[in-house]
Design a protein that fits this description.
With about 625 residues, this protein is an alpha+beta fold. The protein has 19 helices and 25 strands. Strands 18, 19, 20, 21, 22, 23, 24 and 25 form an 8-stranded mixed beta sheet that branches. A hairpin with a 5-residue loop joins strand 6 (about 175) and strand 7. Helix 1 (about 5-30) runs antiparallel to helix 12. The two termini are about 30 Å apart. The relative contact order is 0.09.
Length: about 625
């Protein structure tokens, strides 16, 4: 395994472990910071979907400011009894009083209210008292109530009212902002277990006793999935008044239409200003508590509650592992427009599917995948950027060294004659150029580290071939190199050595390129040009930073011959002058492949044409 592969594998494993940890605490229901994120993201999704029409199964009779102004507040028990009787006369399915009747009132009024409650199926409120705002629970597979927190006290209505009506607990589970997110379907005290207020009302309305099972409850034909601790997830239909609401003052004055009550659950509750029973929601900062209870009742009766259960949370946990791993894999695979575009498409697709699922009644977490993916991708991306800069600096240093690499023996010559080429000299030489075709486009699509690895291998190949034939690399320009034969002094074998080096480069490149996956997939090739003639050799630079270079028409022609080779589909284009100068030795080397020509070729930037021969090796 290469260091790069080890790094990517480590990043993928760490991302999966991080996502798995967050998924575990999410499934367990103890992820406080995730719940805070999820609350905000849930409000955004609710606002984007907008208000929706609630099912026509619940009506609210509000003890509002107008009612309080006429009858006083709290509403006298006798007046409340008259309100219940007036509603009962219009044949509702259930009358539910979202009022805590824990204290005794005037005897006559209490008797009247108890009597009125017996005349119609009714539910009255109880409330659990918890010592802390956050409750801890235990998990026990043998105890279905283990995940339900225990209240230190249950505030129950007076016995005479409890004997006349069913009791339901009105507690809600809120997030850190105070927004109700769940209704516990079961509440328990030290010595009793009670159903929730909405569940009691819905059960009476449907005439069906609820049946609980792990992760859900059944009311007749429809099963409602519940979250941990038998909690019903809440989504709101809209702002205050979305559920049909009527003033208790109008009811007492006989102005309530029969259609508002008949065959419906009627919830009586307080909306008086300053009453305190209000909650913030995505649609309304002060939604009355009676409307929260009515929303839950509508969910239960109509069966339209949003689904957020163990299966949903388990899928969230899987997403928290898969999403960051996938994004990091894409980031490691290709940091380019294609790679970033694919990452953006995956994130947008996930966000779109999450939103669509929420709109259709499935509450997948938005916070968990973000919390799992964002830190992992940012950290890996930051490391990659840092590593790229480090590699770029190293590549620059290596390139600086590569510019000073000379053929064997030249270093010793410079040591003996420090003034060698201090002044330009004109002499005969043979020049070979090699270049990777199409590499520039590839380098823009892959990371710096991969570019470095490819170029390092390319240089080692060129350097080895140049040294083996006594050539001097006078220029290494990223994906190309210039090799000079004839330094420190021209020799009779320079041309033959140049031809042998050019053919050797073609042979080795023909094998090396297909072995590089990045080069093969982009169909990167190579081209070689060679020529001989007079050059001007000199040393450039000052101080410790100097390099040997050669200029002149011979160098220009050798460089342009690479274009001529590519245009004719050949691996190597060499001038007839070089072939002639190489003699039998050069001809023998060229016999290893197919030699074509001569042809007269026009050289870009040069007035006169030259005679060129084309060579390609036998296929592997």
């Amino acid at each position: 395994m290469t260091p790069r592969q080890f790094l990517v594998t480590t990043a993928l494993v760490l991302a999966a472990l991080w996502g798995g940890f967050l998924g575990y605490v999410h499934v367990d229901g103890n992820s406080g910071f995730l719940n805070r994120m999820e609350a905000s993201l849930t409000d955004i999704r609710s606002a984007l979907i907008g208000a929706r029409r609630p099912p026509r199964v619940v009506s609210i009779v509000a003890i509002d400011d107008r009612t309080a102004a006429i009858n006083g507040y709290p509403l006298p028990r006798a007046t409340l009894a008259r309100l219940v009787r007036t509603i009962a006369a219009l044949k509702p399915k259930v009358v539910a009083l979202d009022l805590l009747l824990v204290d005794a009132g005037p005897e006559e009024g209490d008797i009247a209210l108890a009597s009125a409650l017996r005349e119609v199926p009714s539910v009255i409120a109880a409330a659990g008292v918890f010592p802390e705002s956050t409750q801890s629970v235990t998990r026990d597979g043998n105890d279905p109530l283990a995940a339900i927190p225990t209240a230190s006290e249950i505030l129950l209505p007076l016995a005479r009212f409890a004997d006349a009506a069913a009791i339901g607990v009105v507690n809600v589970a809120t997030d850190q902002t105070g927004t109700p997110r769940f209704i516990p379907m079961i509440s328990r005290g030290e010595k009793r277990v009670d159903a929730s207020f909405p569940l009691r009302a819905a059960s009476l309305a449907l005439g069906i006793q609820p049946v609980f099972s792990p992760g859900g409850l059944a009311l007749g034909d429809h099963r409602l999935p519940t979250d941990g601790g038998q909690r019903l997830p809440l989504t709101f239909y809209g702002p205050r008044g979305t559920i049909s609401t009527y003033s208790a003052a109008d009811v007492l004055n006989g102005k309530l239409p029969t259609s508002a009550v008949e065959d419906k659950v009627v919830v009586i509750g307080s909306t008086v200003t300053g009453g305190g029973d209000v909650f913030p929601t995505p649609f309304d900062p002060v939604l009355p508590g009676v409307e929260v209870m009515s929303t839950a009742i509508a969910h239960l009766v109509a069966g339209d509650s949003i689904v957020r259960d163990y299966n949903i949370r388990s899928f969230d946990a899987l997403t928290a592992i898969v999403l960051p791993v996938l994004l990091i894999a894409l980031l490691a695979w290709r940091r380019s427009a294609v790679g970033y575009g694919t990452m953006a498409a995956i994130v947008l697709a996930w966000a779109g599917l999450n939103m669509a699922a929420f709109a259709h009644g499935y509450w997948f977490s938005a916070a968990l995948p973000i919390a799992a993916a964002l830190p992992a991708v940012i950290l890996f991306g930051a490391y990659e950027l840092w590593n790229d800069r480090r590699q770029a600096a190293r590549l620059a240093a290596q390139s600086d060294l590569l510019q000073r690499v000379d053929a064997a023996g030249l270093g010793e010559w410079l040591a003996r004659d420090p003034d060698f080429l201090a002044k330009p000299i004109r002499q005969d030489a043979s020049v070979v150029f090699i270049d990777l075709s199409g590499f520039t486009g590839l380098s823009e699509a892959i990371g710096v580290s991969e570019v470095r690895e490819i170029l390092s291998g390319f240089f080692e190949l060129v350097s080895g071939e140049a040294r083996s034939h006594g050539g001097t690399i006078t220029s290494f320009m990223g994906d190309g190199a210039m090799i000079l034969f004839g330094l420190p002094h021209p020799g009779v074998g320079d041309a033959a050595n140049a031809v042998a080096c050019a053919v050797g480069l073609c042979d080795r490149m023909r094998k090396w390129v297909p072995e590089q996956p990045r080069l093969a997939e982009r169909k990167v090739g190579f081209k070689v040009g060679a020529h001989c003639g007079p050059v001007v050799a000199s040393r450039l630079g000052t101080g410790s930073r100097q390099q040997i270079t050669a200029t002149g028409d011979t160098v220009n022609v050798a460089s342009r011959l690479m274009e001529v080779a590519a245009a004719h589909g050949a691996e190597l284009a060499l001038s007839s002058a070089l072939l002639q100068a190489s003699g039998e030795a050069g001809a023998g080397v060229l016999a290893r492949g197919v030699l074509e020509g001569p042809e007269t070729a026009k050289i870009r930037g040069r007035a006169e044409s030259i005679e060129v021969r084309f060579w390609r090796g036998h296929p592997l």
